[in-house]
Amino acid sequence: MKRYKFPQQCKSALAATIISLLLASCAGQKTVSTTKKPTTAVSSVSQTDKAPQSARDYLDLAKGLDAAEAIPLMVTAAELLSGEAQHRKALWLANQISPLLVTTAGSLTDTGKLKDQYRLFITKATSLQALAYHQLALEQLTLADSLTKEHQLHHQLAYYRQLAKVQQSRELAVDAADAALRAFVIDDFASNDDVFALWQSLSDLSQWQLKQLEQLNPPYIKGWQQLLSFAFQFGDNPPQFNRYLSQWQRKFSEHPALAIIDSLKTAERDSKTIENIAVLLPLSGKQAAAGNAAQQGLLAAYQNNDAVSLHFIDTNTLDMSALVLTFNEQTIDFVIGPLLKPHVQAYLAQEELQVPTLLLNVPDEQVLKPHQVALSMRPEDEAIQAASSLSRRNYQFPVVLSHQDKVSTRIARAFADQWLKMTGNSPEVVPFEQGKRMQTDLTASLDVGLSKSRIKDLKRRVKQTLKTETRNRRDVDMIYLVGSPKQTKLLKPYIDVNISPFAEVIPVFASSRSHSALNDRSDTRDLTGLTFSEMPWLLESKQQNKQLAQMSQQLWPQRSDGLQRIFAMGYDSFALATKIAAMQANPFVRHFGQTGVLKLNGNNILTRSLIWGRYRKDKVQEIAMD
Asked: Could you give the CA distance from residue 214 to residue 223 in angstroms, rounded to a whole number?
């Protein structure tokens, strides 16, 4: 951008005009007064001697001064206008001052002007955020950050505070937490209340979000991470949690979170004993296989527990209106299910049912009541985690290859929306069809077809034998594939062969829809290099229950991947029956299950953090991505 240097006389005239306009605007505001007092010379003097407090006071002081002296006072006035919630006036004044600060860079005498410009960026961001222009506010903060890097300035407290607010408004909890942690360490007046606020925001992060925060390396993150890890794993067991808290105190004796440790230590909870659990599943009809898989998962976790009785009820033959009577007769303490969405809708329609319930599907519209919790297996959640993780790995130009079925389209849209939120750029989404057109759609997305056309035209023009290689487009640095295992097994090698030998390899990532545990036991060389997200149950990993996985393989060697996931959900649901009360009382409690690390959010929905795997020649390995 071309820089202009205003003559000093012009700057002074502009400054005077700006001050006059804003003062006239302030004078135009209506005030209510019961009596009128004449202005006297004495009162004028006393006002002049009084220390400036308001934006108007600073503008009055700036009148008659040259631009160099007036600008810092005007900058302060803009800050005060924003602090007085006069955000549109603050923006107007800041925008008028900015041109007066434009000067040639590099001079030592510019330090004050650079700091004034930095303050204006923060003022603009504060007002834009207050007016709900979150993206524009972020742009001003980005300019402030660039200014500090270019001229080796230090960020002020106001920058980090405002950045935390903006990122929270943009639903980017990791970046908001990072900014809040950086604000805390430079706040000379930070209190125990601020420590509690940090704890609340950090303990609300999902497992994958916490790992991403660790990579940003904010101040004191090691202590926070260890404290959160103890809370996530042991928060539902007060005696054990208290022992780990004491251990943490000894290890991190200088950490600011020491201020809240005593409040985290809890006594034993008086929780209601669960003796009878009703399980509502489709045990007959077309979806009986799904119901049976969930039932088998529950029984695998149950292991003939003498303290609890399971009562299985077939939702395909059930009269929902009779459930209150049934539950009373069987003294049901807890309900697991229903599994199918229509049955969930019908169940929630029974207003009289007040038994604590873990739904195995998320309702479309109904708001859950305090005693109702739903376990989410929505593929969109997985796409959001993937987009958040991959966007932090410096990929700039992703392409999303998505099959044109409803579920794949939802996943692709969720990935693209999250990518836009994270980076400000929309990835290209390329749909493909099943069958012969699948490979045609792929080559078109990589511009390989255009390259072949150019080669063909060149050979027609040049009457000599030419050695040629097709050339793929170079502006793609990552592919996110959304399709079935069969489609992925066809597309992944086709992507590989259509990458030019002289071009860099384009990494391919995928959702769990592309992964099949059945494929893992066959020839997987064509999938080498493919990275995908998955639940622990379907990927050999630290979190997988290996003994149960081996037993399941022996009993049901040909069970589909979909039924395997339902089995894992049934398995986790039994442990959740006794853990949900603790998760509601202490939101930092997590369940490390076979479907993922489960977190209860404010809408009473259990969401999952998944792990990542990668195909390496003849095997699949868990890898660290977040």
From this structure: 11
Q: What is the mean pLDDT of residues 168-184?
A: 97
* CB 575, CB 563: distance < 8 Å: no
Interatomic CA distance for residues 502 and 88, integer angstroms: 54
Q: Which residue has the tokens 């940090």?
A: 198
Quick check: 333 pLDDT over 60?
Answer: yes
Tell me which residue of 280, 344, 343, 273 sits closest to 605, measured CA to CA: 344
DSSP 502: T
Q: Which of 65, 109, 59, 60 is nearest to 79 (CA)?
A: 59
The pLDDT of residue 474 is 58
DSSP helix/strand/coil, 157:
helix
Q: What is the dihedral of CA 428, 433, 438, 443, to 10 degrees?
A: -30
3-state secondary structure 535-574: CHHHCCCCCCCHHHHHHHHHHCCCCCHHHHHHHHHHHHHH
CB neighbours of residue 581 within 10 Å: 17
Per-residue pLDDT tens for 50-62? 667 888 888 888 7
Neighbours of 587 (CB within 10 A): 17
Which of 40-49, 135-144, 505-514, 568-577 is predicted least confidently? Answer: 40-49
547 has pLDDT over 90 = yes
| pLDDT tens profile 376-405 | 999 999 999 999 999 999 898 899 999 989
The two structure tokens encoding residue 577: 């029956």
Helix, strand, coil percent values for the chain (each to nearest 5): 55, 10, 35
Closest CA to 603 of 384, 376, 380, 368: 368
Q: Are 93 and 24 in contact (CB under 8 A)?
A: no
540, 515 in Cβ contact below 8 A? no
